[in-house]
């Protein structure tokens, strides 16, 4: 374990004794923390939350490497454990079914993802599907994906086992203890107000009893692991947590002949089954099949609709369970009877609508809350990733190093300024509705479109731009419909070219051969000001920023693992003032977190007040010079003067992200549209290209420029990502892959992120991003690969659906 950064006597309070809270207490005490307290408003350990009814499915294959890793860690922790002689995890394996050609193709995609993330898997025939689950009608399916190391977890047993070990190591668990408020002092949490809840008849609490009259619990760190009660606790803090509890239909069959002999309902011998095309899943429960379905109307649950502790005590009905709505469940039942014909002879047995939480992107909400030191979140975590998430949180809290790339997990990926309850419900409802849909890396949300637009949106819309959205909800031009493809499109498969247009390469070619205009308006800009501003930035950034006024430098905030927490551009605007330009709201938080409360250093967010456009390509200097009073800085110059650009005051900064060279012009948001029109008019005689985000990606890949948050992140060092030369103090760490660029051998082959890279039949890496080379028409891709195949000229294969295509390493560090 990494060295602790907090004292062992630090008082840590966990709200929620479900699968996450219990696992976190266990891991914190294993770190040597001596004062860990867990409270829950329900009885221990059947608290009435989502953990109390979780069906136990734990599939490791997802579209995200980190989510798959968290699932693997969960299963590895629970493997082989028993509670009072009863099993906690059974690795019965998983079986995903395809009943049509489109879904069979998608199973190959999921098999490739499993290979990329090191999850054992194989495509199996219909006959093999029938052998794996004997009651299944193999004639109803075209094939399956078998993942033999997946398993069923008994959630309540997992909770109690981890809680018992935590208690043995000094933790305290209190049931029937409701958090009613948070206390803060000088921006730091100091504890929680609590009250007693009534006992639940027939469900005695197994934990300690909070001393009579206790109304406040002091804490140095508070971690919210309250599951579906998270939004309510967020409201107490004045926070909008972008998570929404949802109802989900679940029931079981009567006893089935094919499962005769499994007299104990706890017996599970058959693999878990998912039929994503119909939103259904099934697993054995003794002689019965337990089943559930997502294929019904979205049923969000407001906090007021969740039973109170008093209602729980009065009815003995768990708050996370609502009555089964049969009209929503019947399609799932009919699908079960089609796949398992013997179910036609029985009626559905007991069922319910279970409640569990969804976020806009399907990932958890983890990390320290911005603006409240010591307050952490471990919210919207499913059983599948529960122990893995808890381990990450424990490492993060104690050592400062979470041990994984938390970019897609961190609560701060959502900008609080853009969050409302209506927005959370809209996006989370979409995620629920699409949870089992075919998911392509280029899929775009259909909710809250035009939610946040740059000043240039009205012009882009007139130019028939195809829009996508960024993580922050910004409407982004992917390509422009008015750009005419000047070369015939290469015939490629539909999966590889989903969300792609020939206009993309045309825009990139025009920019590479002349000049292009890029919307950079969704920018994060913040000001660091004060007499100690320069000294402070020098201390916290990975490279020095001792600059002259109007000078600039690229720098990064180091993560505790030695990687990069954020990649920034720093501009010195005055002796005591700096502009820091990042790419996300998290960058602001990282700086603020490292900036102490002081009168000599302040951090202000200027993002909404600032917009930007980039001119790139060999003719960018000519176009900029034609409208600028005064000389622009030389290409790659660190100088960042404020120039008069056609009457607009704009700070001009060398552009490096595309690899073409040029300048980014930062100005006040109110001047943005005028500046766009000015530059478009000035560039017309040079054939200026309007460059969408997809063309920009193609240019940066073609020019060998990796992107932070796409190619590399906090777990990677500069050497491995190809950002530092051999003379750097950092080198490739043992067991770490290197970032390379691949070129497809055939121009007919289009590859997509997440696909595995192989050598001699062994997986050696995976793709992070890809695009058509504007010059040659062959697809290029960045990929992380084992050092043994990272040399220029190395021949590899990329698995694309059910094909393997030849590629070579064209660019390496």
UniProtKB/TrEMBL annotation:
Residues 11-396 form the FAD dependent oxidoreductase domain. GO terms for cellular component: cytoplasm. InterPro entries: FAD-dep_OxRdtase, FAD/NAD-bd_sf, FAO_M, GcvT/YgfZ_C, GcvT_C, GCVT_N, TrmE/GcvT-like. Residues 737-808 form the Aminomethyltransferase C-terminal domain. Residues 457-724 form the GCVT N-terminal domain. Pfam families: DAO, FAO_M, GCV_T, GCV_T_C. Residues 399-452 form the FAD dependent oxidoreductase central domain. Belongs to the GcvT family. This is FAD-dependent oxidoreductase.
């Amino acid at each position: 374990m990494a060295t602790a950064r907090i004292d062992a006597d630090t008082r840590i309070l966990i709200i929620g004794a479900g699968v996450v809270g219990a696992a976190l207490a266990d891991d914190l005490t294993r770190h040597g923390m001596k004062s860990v307290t867990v409270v829950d408003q329900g009885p221990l350990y059947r608290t009435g939350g989502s953990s109390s009814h979780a069906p136990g499915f734990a599939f490791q294959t997802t579209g995200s490497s980190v989510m798959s890793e968290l699932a693997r860690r969960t299963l590895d922790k629970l493997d082989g454990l028993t509670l009072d002689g009863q099993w906690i995890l059974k690795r019965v394996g998983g079986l995903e079914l395809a009943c049509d050609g489109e879904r069979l193709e998608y199973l190959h995609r999921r098999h490739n993802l499993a290979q990329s993330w090191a999850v054992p898997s194989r495509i199996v025939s219909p006959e093999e599907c029938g052998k794996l689950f004997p009651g299944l009608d193999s004639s109803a399916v075209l094939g399956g994906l078998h993942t033999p190391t997946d398993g069923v977890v008994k959630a309540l047993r997992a909770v109690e086992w981890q809680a018992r070990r935590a208690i043995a190591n000094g933790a305290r668990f209190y049931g029937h203890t409701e958090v009613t408020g948070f206390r803060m002092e000088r921006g730091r949490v100091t504890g929680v107000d609590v009250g007693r809840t009534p006992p639940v008849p027939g469900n005695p609490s197994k934990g300690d009893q909070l001393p009579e009259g206790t109304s406040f619990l002091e804490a140095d760190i508070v971690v919210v692991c309250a599951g579906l009660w998270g939004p309510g606790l967020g409201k107490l803090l004045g926070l909008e947590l972008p998570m929404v509890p949802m109802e989900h239909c679940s029931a079981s069959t009567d006893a089935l002949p094919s499962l005769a002999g499994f007299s104990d309902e706890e017996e599970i011998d058959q693999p878990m089954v998912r039929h994503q095309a119909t939103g259904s899943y099934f697993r054995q429960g003794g002689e019965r099949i337990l089943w559930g379905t997502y294929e019904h109307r979205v049923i969000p649950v407001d906090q007021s609709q969740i039973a109170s502790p008093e209602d729980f005590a009065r009815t003995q009905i768990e708050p996370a369970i609502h009555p089964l709505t049969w009209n929503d469940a019947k399609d799932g039942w009919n699908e079960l009877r089609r796949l398992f014909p013997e179910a036609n002879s029985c009626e559905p047995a007991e069922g319910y609508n279970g409640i569990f939480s969804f976020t806009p992107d399907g990932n958890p909400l983890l990390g320290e809350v911005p603006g409240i030191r010591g307050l952490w979140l471990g919210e919207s975590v499913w059983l599948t990733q529960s122990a893995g998430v808890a381990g990450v949180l424990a490492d993060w809290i104690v050592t400062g190093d979470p041990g994984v790339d938390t970019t897609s997990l961190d609560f701060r990926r959502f900008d609080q300024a853009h969050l409302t309850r209506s927005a959370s419900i809209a996006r989370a409802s979409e995620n629920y509705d699409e949870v089992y849909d075919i998911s392509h890396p280029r899929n775009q949300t259909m909710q809250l479109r035009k939610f946040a637009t740059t000043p240039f949106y009205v012009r882009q819309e007139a130019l028939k731009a195809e829009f996508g959205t960024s993580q922050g909800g910004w409407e982004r031009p992917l390509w422009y419909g008015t750009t005419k493809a000047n070369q015939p499109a290469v015939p490629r498969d539909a999966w590889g070219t989903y969300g792609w247009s020939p206009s993309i390469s045309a825009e990139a070619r025009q920019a590479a051969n002349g000049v292009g205009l890029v919307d950079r308006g969704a920018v994060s800009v913040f000001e660091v000001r004060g007499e100690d501003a320069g000294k402070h930035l020098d201390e916290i950034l990975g490279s020095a920023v001792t600059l002259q006024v109007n000078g600039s430098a690229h720098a990064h905030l180091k993560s505790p693992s030695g990687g990069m927490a954020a990649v920034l551009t720093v501009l010195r605007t005055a002796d005591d003032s700096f502009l820091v330009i990042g790419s996300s709201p998290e960058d602001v938080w990282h700086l603020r977190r490292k900036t102490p409360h002081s009168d000599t250093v302040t951090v202000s967010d200027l993002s909404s007040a600032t917009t930007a456009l980039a001119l790139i390509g060999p003719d960018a200097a000519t176009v900029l010079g034609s409208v600028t009073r005064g000389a622009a800085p030389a290409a790659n110059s660190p100088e960042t003067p404020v120039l008069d650009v056609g009457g607009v005051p704009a700070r001009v900064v060398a552009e490096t992200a595309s690899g073409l060279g040029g300048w980014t012009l930062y100005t006040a948001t109110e001047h943005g549209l005028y500046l766009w029109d000015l530059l478009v008019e000035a560039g017309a005689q040079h054939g200026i290209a309007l460059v969408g985000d997809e063309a920009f990606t193609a240019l940066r890949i073609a020019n060998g420029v990796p992107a932070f948050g796409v190619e590399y992140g906090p777990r990677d060092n500069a050497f491995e990502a190809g950002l530092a030369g051999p003379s750097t103090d950092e080198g490739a760490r043992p067991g770490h892959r290197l970032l390379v660029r691949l070129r497809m051998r055939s121009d007919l082959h289009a590859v997509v992120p997440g696909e595995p890279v192989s050598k001699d039949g062994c997986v050696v890496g995976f793709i992070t991003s890809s695009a058509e080379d504007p010059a040659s028409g062959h697809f290029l891709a960045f990929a992380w690969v084992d050092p043994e195949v990272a040399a220029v000229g190395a021949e590899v294969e990329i698995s694309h659906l059910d094909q393997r295509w030849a590629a070579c390493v064209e660019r390496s560090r």
